[in-house]
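Here we describe the complex-level prediction in full. Unlike the single-chain runs in Section 2.1, the two entities below were treated as one system.
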Amino acid sequence: MTETFIYQFGIPNIIREIEHWSDIMQGTMIRERYLSELPEGKGCVIDHIDAGRGLARRLAELGFIKGAKLFINRVAGGAMIVCVDHQRYALSKGIGKKIAIRNF
Amino acid sequence: MEDKNITIALAGNPNVGKTTLFNALTGARQHVGNWPGVTVEKKTGNARCKEWDLTIVDLPGTYSLSAYSMDEVVSRDFILKGRPDVVVHIIDASNLVRNLYLTMQLLELDVNLVIALNMYDIVKSRGDRIDIVALEKILGVPIVETIASNGDGIDNLLEKVILASQRENRNIPIKYGNEIEEKISNIIGILSKDDKVAPRFPDRWLAVKVLEEDEEIMKLLEETDILEDLNEYMDVEGENSELLLVQSRYNNVRDTLSETYHFSEEELDPSDMLDKVLTNKYLGIPIFLTMMWAAFELTFKVAAPFTYIIDVFFNSLAEFVSQNVPNEHLASLLGDGIIGGVGSVLIFVPNIFILFLIISLLEDSGYLARAAFVMDKVMTRLGLHGKSFIPLLIGFGCSVPAIMACRSIEDRKDRLITILSTPFITCGARLPVYILLAGVFFAGREGTIVFTMYLLSILMAVFSALLLRNVLFRGEKSPFIMELPAYRRPTLRSAVIHTWDRGSMYLRKAGTVILAGVIIIWALASFPPGVEYGAEDSVVGMIGKVLEPVVRPLGFDWKVAVALTLGFVAKEIVVGSLGTLYGTGEDDELLTEQLRADPNITPLTSLGLMIFTLIYVPCIATVAIIRKETNSTKWTLFSVAYSLTLAWVITFAVYRVGLLMGY
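The structure predicted for the assembly as a whole is:
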């Protein structure tokens, strides 16, 4: 059975097939990463913020906007110290879960 | 030359030295009140410069001028409707990005702006450089360097302000992207058709607020007939236009700064290094507790001689009055009532001022914000907020400043929970009650008993916080975001100003509400005429008799009821009034004997009395300050009823269990 299978499709075809599926898999696997997942001493860039209007505005007004560069100074218990524009803020992890990031 | 008036508004972010600058400008000539209809404090002051009379209004510290909080609404309403001649925007030079964000909004408000670039010394010490001339040019606003904490640059600032008040406003409003600009001009076109709302605001600003869907403005526009036309322009493809606007303002700020702000090469920020230690996972909490312990030690050690002097002063004054005022009633009113009562409140002044001074120093240094961060996890578990820790701690000294310290908690729910839980923390005034009763009934074990009371008070505060959080204030906890300012060396000058700001309120209370309270209690204890102070046939004695059935299940008789009623003035009065009721006066030894001899008071009831004293209604001063800080009679009455109920229930439980166990 197996032999005919390989014979029928040819090894190059199978490899192509695997590559194709793995691309699709990766596409679905690459999920959003959030600020709360990063360890101390890492930098990143804000991709977007998944928060309600009030919190999104509050964060934006403090400088947490799309494209802003963040640096995580400290993670301790339920909170973290994050640096944006040379200004430090203490945030709860709950807020960190709403800040989607890239380039970490 | 005729005197001329100029009105100046001070705007700025929180923690930029606004209060310090306000005090430097106005000195003692200031007036504190409330903005109409809201709890936000309004401070106005006066200053003179040459022939100019300046009225200076301190706006609340805000990060923005949207309608997000009461503070923001108050600030922008004053700028729009109060039409100050000049708005001075105080900027923390060490944190320009976020500060200039507010500048961008002020520019849109079409006001005569002057920027006070405060804390410029920090920028210099970091080795950074700001090209002020270029910044002035880009923003079209005069900029003055100031160091409010030592008064540098104040004269220069006043001169620029007067100059600015004389010129036409030349602000350059910021430009948003093409797409948004097009919408803005369309909206301005529609707004021009309206004659009800639009004429009251600057065109461009109003258009921007419409794009932001600002709550206050949209409410106003609902009454007009242009709302439908506006709706068409409000959404920018798929994106929240409000966030887009914030974003473009920030981009503007960043562009401006890339031309004017030069960072030094230095990579190591001393604040980061300090944070590594002070917010360390393992060291953070021990360091914090040590600091707080030291603060308390220092407070009570330093305050002790002052407290003693005040005590001696009021005692001898009361004695002098009662001996030298011929009319017996008047002498009693002055001596027992006013001097005794006010004295018992003023005795806490040294403690309060020194504690506030230390806390102001810690706050100015930037440490206090870290303390809230360090304590947040623990406090969250207890249904509180990281910032609740400081009020609770101050509560061990006195509930009044503790409740005042709740102001730093922004969220109303968190603040109310903390305000309502703080009075359960046993304050200094309750200690004499424990000491006396524990000494009488638990001789040899006083330390354990007093310690147990302290422990119980912490348990009560935590229990109350959890109860309130889970029953009355359910729902999601407010997200915790807090600015951590750069560490800096605190100056005595600004710490003293802050201390006076807070402490003087306590003094004012002592002069008004508390005075009225002690007179009422005195009258209750002295009438009808001819009775002994607080005796069985006085009004308060009758009240005690009326209350007796209520406290009977707790094992208390009418004398205890009277003592507890009088303790409403200040809790340590419970001891003094027991002295009066047992006819022993100030003689504690005699009182001890009498109490031991009284068959109505057993060790168990004395324990009950201690517990009741711990939990029941905070004193008049605390009630007054709760009223002031919550601005709500409902919550004040709730606090009174809640603590009375809790005191009764818990004392009852302890008493009954004790009886069952055969005590």
